[in-house]
Amino acid sequence: MPPRFAEATADAMPLHVIDSAGCADWLACRPEAERAWAEACGFTGALGSALMLPGPDGRPVGAVAGHGDAAARARTRFPLAAALPGLAPGTYALTAPLPETECLGWLLANYRFDRYRAGDAPARHLVAPEGVDAPRIEALAAAECLTRDLVNIPAADMGPEALETAARVLAQEFGAGITVTTGDALLEQDFPMIHAVGRAAAQAPRLIDMRWGDRGPTLTLVGKGVCFDTGGLNLKPGASMGLMKKDMGGAANTLGLARAIMALDLPLRLRLLIPAVENSVAGNSFRPGDILTSRKGLTVEINNTDAEGRLVLADALCLGDEEDPDLMISMATLTGAARVAVGPDLAPFYTDDDALAQALAQGGAAQADPVWRMPFHAPYEAMIEPGIADLDNAPSGGFAGSITAALFLRRFTSPGRRYAHFDIYAWQPKPEPGRPKGGLGQGPRAILAALPQVLDL
């Protein structure tokens, strides 16, 4: 179950959140025994520090969490969550208000991926502080936890069939409609590149199409659902294949975002498209040198079968574009070049729309979901034009790999389309407060915060 706020009860322990500058003043106002205990334990309000406050019988009656200084807080997404490991399991109530992102960080710090491991980890519950939008924070936490779960599940249990099941479960929960085009029906309905990438796998490729809402502007999300990527005939080395269960991180993030949109009942019409495939090796694998004809009619020369994500996204983007949505967003774990450029902590995105870019940047800053705009650099268009076909799926040379991938995808949207593409990592490589190692949501909260301004909701 996604983490939720606790009910306010008499036995909830008060939690004081004290920064470094205010620690001495706070201690001076505490009872003598409590002050002596805190001083003996060396509590200074440093970020990540925590101290249980004992009552007369030695049992804890409250706690204090260090909030550090501004410089320390700037170095972590959820500063309060850093103190959770030092708090005893139980239920806590804040004694002073904090930003809603800190409450979200607390909930996310209680996330556990326990599908393959028995036993309950001790939880630290938080009573929803007065004045915060608790249902919204819980909806954001549930969306993030869905994304993390989907990315964390290994490919043996999260192939195209299981990804379809996850989408169907979500659709049923919120009354959304869903259709799925599978196997050779992809060719019959003109999705040739999705079929080509996924046809060699044990599970048939498919296009998942979910719709929700009957009022307001139209939003189409497209998520890359490559459930495992061997690289195809351009086989990845073993070291590069180890994390490829996360190559459906774009799909996982769009499913999480869709969940939040539906849970919050936003007044818009949502469409979610997920091309779900596994890029495998068999006698019928697509090959380097092949030329594929896309749904849009553009031909694509395959110069590397490991650049498959943009192929499946292209057919799905073309389908979404045909309905002329007010806004279209694609998300993918697409390029190592993006990871090298900005590292795993930032979600890079591309758009030609300055107002959309500003809204996304502001939303990311407000929601502890940082994003970074990258350029659709027109002079690089020639790099994706091989001469033998309209487009090249993997330009040689290695320069600007994230930009050329984004330029490739933009070719499958109409000129002037309000569109943004996110080239995300979707993985937390080492534990951080509120973000355990593993699958990660990157961008959905920034997008969600931008939607009211961008779509005039």
From TrEMBL:
One of its GO terms (molecular function) is metalloaminopeptidase activity. GO terms for biological process: proteolysis. Keywords: Aminopeptidase, Hydrolase, Manganese, Protease. The keyword Manganese applies. The keyword Manganese applies. Residues 304-311 form the Cytosol aminopeptidase domain. InterPro entries: Leucine_aapep/pepB, Macro_dom-like, Peptidase_M17_C, Peptidase_M17_N_1. Pfam families: Peptidase_M17 (PF00883), Peptidase_M17_N_1 (PF21337). GO terms for cellular component: cytoplasm. Belongs to the peptidase M17 family. This is Cytochrome C oxidase subunit II. It comes from Pseudoponticoccus marisrubri.
